[in-house]
Amino acid sequence: MARAAEYLPGRRVAGLCAALALASAMLVQNGIEGGALRPGGGRPLLYLPSGKYLRVAALGFDGLLADAVYLWSIQYYGNYQIQDRYTYLEHIYTGVISELDPHYVDPYLIGSLIMNTEAREPEMALRLLDKGIAANPETWILPFEAGFLCYNDLKDYRRAAAYFEKALRVPGVHPLVRRLYAEMHNRAGDKRTSLREWSEIHDTAQDDYVRTVALKHIHDLKVDVDLLTLTEAVKRFEEKEGRPPARMEEIVKRGFLTGVPRDPEDRAYLYDLRSGQVAYGGSLVLGR
User: Fold this and answer.
1) What is the 3-state secondary structure (H, E, C) of 63-106?
2) Intra-chain end-to-end CA distance of the chain, in Å
3) Residue 278: which H helix or E strand, with range?
4) Where would I find the H helices in the chain?
5) Cβ atoms within 10 Å, residue 266
6) 177-to-61, 87, 163, 202 alpha-carbon distances in Å
7) Which residues of 126-165 are buried (b: 16+ CB within 10 A; e: fewer)?
8) How far is CA 267 from each of CA 259, 260, 275, 280, rounded to the nearest angstrom?
9) Do residues 269 and 258 touch, judged by C-beta distance below 8 A?
10) pTM of the full predicted structure?
11) Residues near 262 by beta carbon (within 8 Å), at least 6 away in sequence
12) Are 104 and 63 spatial neighbours (Cβ–Cβ below 8 Å)?
């Protein structure tokens, strides 16, 4: 026991020294690069070993080394004089920092931001965020950031909805995520799901502002869903009967609908017998 007690403090010191040595080496390299810079260029980043190997060298000080590499990376990738600074970008964040400390959330957020906005590599950013989501399932901000990237930058609304749905499974998620999730279904063309989600938001809202916003979406989405439902029913009627219905009630009578929906103002939708088209006689609140 005495020998073990003597050994452990020494091992901690050795590990600390190893971590600091690695961190110092990177800082020294950065200083050399900074001193050697000339307009339009700079020395390339030296390739760092995988975080799996660095964890062995750190001797238990993985978090300390992850901190050092992360802080260094912010300085390095913020130096716009280094033209090829993104060469090992994915390796630094995905292969080094997140391997040293998978539960260190900040590097996932900052790394993905650099990848997307600076390096213009959104898929690289999503790979890093996916790794963070897998390692930190209790953190809603990571799937939220991935969803917002898909929504705002890629315009991939179905993919965004999938990420927002992951965020919604985490206790304590911000209420805004639910509204974004509902809107992604609308933008992806799934009006029925979007209407259902906005209705749930309205029914569970804790303040008047959210209820008002939800009602505006519900109004327009009800029109969209009703027109879609009626148009589909008219088409099925024509396919079977060989003619358009004389009036909307005939669709119900023939079993193509259980009832004719009315618009949000409780009026009948407009129906043109000659064209078979159904229309809304009012105005959309959101005007889209």
Assistant:
1) HHHHHHHHHHHHHHHCCCCCCCCCCCHHHHHHHHHHHHCCCCHH
2) 74
3) strand 277-279
4) 2-36, 51-58, 62-77, 89-90, 98-100, 105-113, 122-135, 141-149, 157-168, 176-187, 191-204, 208-241, 248-253
5) 6
6) 36, 34, 10, 14
7) bbbbbbbbebbeebbbbbbbbbbbbbeeeebbebbbbbbe
8) 14, 11, 21, 9
9) no
10) 0.79
11) 268, 269
12) yes
Amino acid in position 239 = E
Residue 104 to residue 141: CA distance in whole angstroms: 13
State both tokens at 157: 């609304």
Closest CA to 26 of 84, 83, 65, 79: 65
8 A C-beta contact, residue 100 and residue 56: no
Query: pLDDT tens digits for the chain (288 residues)?
Result: 343 343 334 444 444 454 454 554 454 444 434 444 444 444 455 567 677 767 766 666 788 888 899 999 999 999 888 888 898 999 999 999 999 999 999 999 999 999 999 999 999 999 999 999 999 999 999 999 999 999 999 999 999 999 999 999 999 999 999 999 999 999 999 999 999 999 999 999 999 999 999 999 999 999 999 999 999 999 999 999 999 999 999 999 999 999 999 999 999 999 998 888 999 999 999 976
- Is the separation of the CB atoms in 82 and 76 below 8 Å? yes
d(Cα 184, Cα 178) in Å, to the nearest integer? 10
From CA 225, how far away is CA 231, in angstroms rounded? Answer: 10
| Location of structure tokens 């809304």 | 280
